[in-house]
Amino acid sequence: MPTPAEPGAAIVAIPDPARRARAARAAADAAAGLYTELYRNAVRALVAAHGGNRSKAARELNLTPQRVSQILAEDDAVPARALAVGEPALYFADEYAADAALRDWFLVHQELVDRRDPLVRGARAAGLSPRQIRELTDLPLETIERLIAGDITTAVEVDLEVWEAAVEHFADLADAVDAVDAPAAHAYRHTGRALAAAIGMVIDESGRSPAPDAALSGPRWEALSPEAKAELMMNTPLGGDVPELSSEDALLSWDGWAALYCTSLERGAATAEGPLAEAMRHCAAILRHIRTCGALPGKEAR
């Protein structure tokens, strides 16, 4: 196989090592491009010899038909250098697919950061030292010390009845501002539905626990046997449902979900404006108060 011997000799003769290195790199890129184009032309000729049948050409080259199509593409998504050296880049059909993949990665990365901060603070409050946290997470000590600077407020165990009351409270807040500020009402309503999903609470379209069916109360209900009551309850529609929850959030405790959702609300409020931003911060403040006091704001035990 012919090789560019003369250009190689000329490069070796360059006395300055830096210039020689740059010239060698440029020659390697040029050679990679040249041989890649020769390869593409040969594959193109083989496909033509098979009457345009790419599958037959692929079998002869021990390639897949999809790979032959990529090689023959006029605008190959994989650069010539990537074909020659290094780990192959991900294949994207176009720039829009690449853009969407990067945006998805950013969202996943941001969620991991959101989960990290309360986790590190909780680990420190539980007694782990900053160095232990670093060994377990590979986070820099500077980051750990920044996250745990100052006093750490620890959450308390919250009864289910308090979380259920909070769902109703968010629905009340949404109704109170719905006529004057729809975006703020959406923030309250969305937070209530998300909380209902986290605790497995059945709610209706208003965001509240549905009213009990008339058949499940009153004298007739009281006169039924336990077996008849159980059967009637199983066959009576609830008038609502439990909102969907992501599989990852389903693995979190109620407190873990609330900690993550507070961070998400604060991040969203930083990019929002006006009443919407205020409502998102208010939702976060309510959840944070419940986590630290075990009750809704203004409902603490006296």
In short:
67% of the residues lie in helices and 0% in strands. By secondary structure, the protein is an all-alpha fold.
Give the helices and strands, then pairings.
Elements: H1 5-12, H2 17-49, H3 54-61, H4 65-72, H5 80-84, H6 95-125, H7 130-137, H8 141-147, H9 160-177, H10 182-199, H11 219-223, H12 226-235, H13 247-250, H14 254-271, H15 274-293
Notes on the structure:
67% of the residues lie in helices and 0% in strands. The termini are far apart. It is mainly α and 302 residues long. α9 packs antiparallel against α10 (182-199) and α9 (160-177) runs antiparallel to α15 (274-293). It contains 15 helices and no strands. Residues 78-82 have low confidence and may be disordered.
Q: What's the story with the biggest beta sheet?
A: none
Helix-and-strand structural type? mainly alpha
DSSP summary, beta strand count: 0
Specify the oligomeric state.
Answer: single chain
Percentage of helical residues? 55-70%
Q: What overall form do the CA principal axes indicate? A: elongated
List keywords for this structure.
302 residues; mainly alpha; 15 helices; 67% helix; elongated
